[in-house]
Specification:
6 helices; 38% helix; MetalloPept_cat_dom_sf; mainly alpha; 2 strands; metallopeptidase activity; 3% strand; 137 residues; two-stranded antiparallel ribbon; 2 domains
């Protein structure tokens, strides 16, 4: 299920265009592996790359706050494509078995029982702190 940017030169241009930290690169690679498309590609045509979201082909520096803020979050297209992938049979390995759900359940603000989604146990910030130092991120 792994997806990578093809060609060393293409990846270097991609990485340098974002002035990317290792955590940003890891975040993008995880999203590609979970089924997200780069914004502007045929699978994400409703989300143009120019909107500057995390999964844009290139992210440009800008003084416009909204476009800069987009560079650290996923577009609606990326979120939808990941949700779609998580509903496929091949993604079942990412979910806890039903017998273990009671160990992880928590209550919502209205008292309903909730089950953590993949990634909730250890988020991206915590992963980066484990990899680099407790003060990272």
């Amino acid at each position: 299920m792994a997806v990578t940017v093809s060609g060393t030169e293409e990846f270097e241009r991609f990485a340098h265009s974002r002035v990317m930290s290792p955590c940003s690169i890891k975040s993008i690679e995880k999203k590609l592996n979970l089924g997200a498309f780069h914004d502007g590609n045929p699978g994400a045509a409703d989300c143009p790359s120019e909107a500057n979201f995390l999964m844009a082909v290139t992210v440009s520096g800008t003084e416009e706050f909204e476009r800069f803020a987009h560079s650290r979050v996923m577009s609606p297209c990326s979120i939808k494509s990941i949700e779609k992938k998580l509903k496929t049979p091949s993604a079942k390995c990412l979910w806890k078995s039903k017998k273990d759900l009671h160990k992880m359940s928590k209550k919502s603000s209205n008292g309903e029982s909730m089950t953590p989604l993949p990634g909730e146990m250890i988020g991206l910030r915590q992963q980066c702190q484990i990899a680099f130092s407790p003060h990272y991120g």
